[in-house]
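lol ok so funny story. i was supposed to be doing the assay writeup but got distracted and ended up predicting the structure for this chain instead. priorities right. anyway since i did it might as well share w the group, maybe its usefull for someone
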Amino acid sequence: MIQGFDHVEFYVGSAKMVAYWYAKALGFAIAGYRGPENGCKDRTSYYLVKNKIKLVMTSALQPETQDISSFVTTHGDGVKRFSVLVDNVESAYHRAIEHGAISVRKPYRSEDKHGTLEEAFIRIYDDTELGFINYDHYTGLFKPGFDAPIQDFVIQCEDTGLESIDHIVGNVREKEMDRWADYFNKTLDFETFIEFGPGDITTKYSALLSKVVRAKDNVIKLPINEPYKGLKKSQIEEYIEEYHGTGIQHIAIATPDILSSIRALRKNGVEFLEVPATYYEELKKKKFKITEDIDELQKLGILCDIEGQGYLLQLFTKPIGDRPTFFFEIIQRRNGAQGFGQGNFQALFEAIEQDQKKRGNW
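and the output, tada:
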């Protein structure tokens, strides 16, 4: 049984520099390290933690470390894999394989003085992997091979209050969305939760299609996007061209207080998409009953969408690397809201299109 997201591993050009940015800008603590000083000669990894969020930044130390160097050369910095916590790795892996999953690595155990850790991996989008992990017999820092950082990182920044991973979004090619939704549903016993068809996510110039699959107890949510015909190049097409393949577009991080989180993130230097003032004029006209002051939302650039008795607040960073590929979403769900901000799509996509235009990719 899947219990939730465990951690996300990025392959990057320089793990130390990227880890420092995550600590300084997003408020993560650099909690662990693996590298030459503790026996790993071909790669270096930094383990970062913020409340329930666990990230790993890994880079190659040698040209022959092809799994990392070829990934970064092709895709730039990006998500190589994310792992879900399960109560039984063998069972989760074999069920997935029996229902059509593509194996990357069969269940295996790694150990040190803190016990034994079990993992297994299956293939998802192009060069991306999904892992199963279980810590029942392991009490160490993170995984065997990771120790406390060799450097005492004293990094001053605002506390961002980021709490947990809400969902992880994949971008795929045209006509691939249904296949990937079926793949997750069959191999992981997920279900399709929401579907956005033609006309649901569109602007005057571009469009996309999207399906959200999830674990039936809602502990994992995986939206999947594919491009749809429009007058201009969609954000999904741009991602696939710049990333040179399909993969993870963004990670949504939940916070219990998005106003405080966005204030802190902006002070830490994080760049966000710019929401037009007309969005807030329309929001006031709708007279939604929300706790937050709309003028304060506008000041911080936060989007708001009502669904049923609840509502969600969200804001998207600009791409965090050199390529216009991976970014973060900051999200707060109020009163049981489960959607993904459909009422915000128009303003969001127009903001993305303006950035595409500046890059000459539109």
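The first strand starts at residue 2 and ends at 11. The chain is about 25% helix and 35% strand.
back to the writeup now i swear
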